[in-house]
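Let's sit down with a protein and look at its sequence and fold side by side. We need material for that, and I hope you will provide a protein of your own picking. Once you have written the record down, we can walk along the chain together.

***
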Amino acid sequence: MRHFLVGVAAAIAIASALMLAAAAADLPPLNDGSDHGDPPFLAESGWRPLLNGKNLDGWELVDPGKPGKWMATSAVIWGGTAEPTLLLGLPTPGDRIVNTGVEPRGNASNLYTTEKFGDIELYVEFMVAAHSNSGVFMHGLYETQIWDSWGFTPQLSTDQCGAMYHYNGGPIDGEDGGVTPKARADRPPGQWQSFHYWFQAPRFDASGKKIANAKFLRILHNGQLIHENVERRGPTQAAMKIPEAATNPIMLQGDHGAVAFRNIYVRPLRPLADRLAPQLQPTPQVPGFGRGGRGARGGQPPAPPPSQ
C-alpha cells in the first residue's frame, strides 16, 4: 500500500510539473518592454529590492549636512485636496521611504545607493505632493524627471513628468539633452506612479576612454512607453559630482518638495524579447479633467509655497 501511495504522489508531482511547464509556455514574452499587469518583480524572476522594509540602510545622503526629513515608513499619507502639498509618513518603520518636505533654506539632501550598478533593469514607484519636483538619476548622473505636471502643460516641455533633463553645463555636441516623453502618462498628486527602466551603462576601453554613451533602451511610465533608445552624451543638471563609469549608484532627488518612493527593485539587464511590443499609444488626459476642471483636485490648485 505504501509503495502504491508513493507512486501516486510521484505521478501527481510529475503531472503538476508538466502543467506548470505548459502554462509557462503559454505566457507572453514578459521582457518585451511593455506593461504586463502586475509589477515585473512579482511576475518575473531575478529581481531584488533596494529598500529593506525597516530603515534607510543601503542609502546615503549626498550632503550629510542636509538630512531633511527622509524616513522609512509603513504608510504614506497625502494631505488631499485640503492640503495637497502635504505628504506624511507614519512613525512606524516600513517598506517605503518619504521626504516629507523641504524648508526654504534647502534642508534636504538627495539620496543615493551605496551599491553601484552597470547594465540593469530598474522598477520604482513614486508619489508626489502638489507642486513637488523630484527625479530618478540612473548612475547618479542621468535624470528622469518626476514632477507634479498632471492636468496642465508646463511652460517647459521638460518639466513634464517622465522627461529627460538637460545636460549639465549646456549642450554637448550641439544637443541640449532635454527629451520630452512620447506620451503623457502622469497621474494626480497623492497617487502612486511607476517608472520601469531598461538601462545600458556607458562603455569604456582599456585606457578608460568612453567608447559608447549610456543608453535608456526603454522606459515605461505607468505602463506606457515614454522613451526608447535614448542616448545620454553626459550628465544632466543636478547630477552627482562623480565621473561617468561602467558602474555607479542610483540617486533619488529630495531637495525640491515632498516625495515618496516604494517598490524599488533591480535585476541585471536582460535582452529584450525578439518580439518587441508595439509602441504604446498615449492615453489623453480628457479635457475638463485637469486642474480646475470637473474631476480635478478641488478647483484651482493652491499657489506653491515660497520654498518651491
